Hints:
By secondary structure, the chain is α+β, with helices and mostly antiparallel strands.
Amino acid sequence: MSLPRDQLLEGAGNQEGLAKLIDQAETVLRTWQPIWSDFLDAPLQEEGLQRLNGLSELTWQRDGGYPGAERCRLLCRRGIEGEEGNCAAPISGLLIEGNFLFDPLSPMDLRRALQEMGASDNELGDLWVRGDRGGQGLVTPDCATALHERIGRIRDVDIRCERVDFSQLQLPTQRTPKTLTTVEASCRIDAIASAGFGLSRSKVVTQIKAGRLRLNWQPVRQGGRELSVGDRLQLQDRGTLEVLSCQRTKRDRWRIELLRR
Length: 261
């Protein structure tokens, strides 16, 4: 069974990734067998679900291993009358151990190291740092098996990988969604990020230079860019801000409503 591929791909931001999801959907329609995708980044997940959720007979489920995960796998299955409930994605835990007391670590360091050890990006879910002893993450079962007890390196530090059960992971802290309002002189990224994440302007600039602040999942290059309603800021280890409204006050300032997750 074929889907309107050209129509679904028209104007897509990630045509290659979306094409793979269309292939997945067509296979499910043909075989009636549910299929999990690889790990996908957030922009592709959102674009895929937006374009494919309306297809008749198909249902989609997103799972990244824990609530709030950024990188997730998508389950596509053919709808069956009376079928209910979700099923867990095939995801394994991974410990990445090393001594980083004198060499601060980032999630990107972990990702690059695992890729250098042979893991592909689509096998890697969320990865996070746990103090100065290394990191943890979520990967496909095959990837966890391949990396188990392997030795790698991040700069001058040796790392060791170990496949573990979910119960042994210390998952990232989950934030309760909170609506907040701030009044600013402008709708600049640095002003809103400072108010929403509770950081000084100088620290926001530092986060931008380090590549930790993103706008709609893309790296922020300039803090002076103006935000609009619907824009979202993501800051590593501090969650997400979504701009809900921007209204000019009588004193020619901006009252900005934000949703922080």
